């Protein structure tokens, strides 16, 4: 299955690629946060495939009654799950906290509590489907993997724990940008999970 994954920055070229058939074999769109929802909505409209996304630290607080807080035609998977073409997909939004009382920003301890909330469904998936999770989409990276030293771009330790517990085959994230000199790799393997920083967009073939 071919996936178009996007995060953090509008790429004007993507508008043209989407309309000229460059993404015609894409079967799924994954949004990893900090993008205007009308950008995601455009991709859904043109490509006519499902969209699953998580919020970033610059996205509004989700309110099911407010259309401005969601991408129409897509599904917000923050701490939620979906199954598409037999792939179990789960999401974990937000970033580490660097501004008091900010939306979609969490301390390391808060992030652990959020991860714990995913445990019942992960356990149920393992019992019923034989595995907990196939694809994890996040905004922030895991701690020490594609993250940065400043508070705003430090990874979540809870995600390292979640990877060990859930054992997803893939994790896709955004948030860290590769113009930073100390970030050199966009793909890594951790606990047999392939981790990819999708900023600003990537097409990925998964088996």
Short description:
Helix content is 24%, strand content 24%.
CATH level-1 class = Alpha Beta
The main sheet comes to: 6 strands, mixed
Question: How big a fraction of the residues is strand?
Answer: 15-25%
What structural category do the secondary elements indicate? alpha/beta
SS summary, helix count:
5
Order of helices and strands: EHEHEEEEEEHHEHEEEE
Order the strands across the largest sheet as they lie in space.
Answer: 5-6-9-10-12-11
What fraction, in percent, of the residue positions are helical? 10-25%
Q: Indicate the CATH topology.
A: Purple Acid Phosphatase, chain A, domain 2
Explained architecture:
By secondary structure, this protein is an alpha/beta fold. The chain has a single domain, classed as 4-Layer Sandwich (Purple Acid Phosphatase, chain A, domain 2), CATH 3.60.21. The chain contains 5 helices and 13 strands. It has helices spanning 12-19, 37-47, 108-116, 119-129, 157-166, and strands at residues 2-6, 28-31, 51-53, 75-76, 81-84, 87-92, 95-96, 105-106, 135-138, 170-173, 187-190, 193-197, 201-205. The protein has a 6-stranded mixed beta sheet with strand order 5-6-9-10-12-11, with no helix packed on it. Strands 4-3-2-1-13 form a 5-stranded mixed beta sheet, covered by helices on one side. α3 packs parallel to α5. The protein is globular. The mean pLDDT is 94.
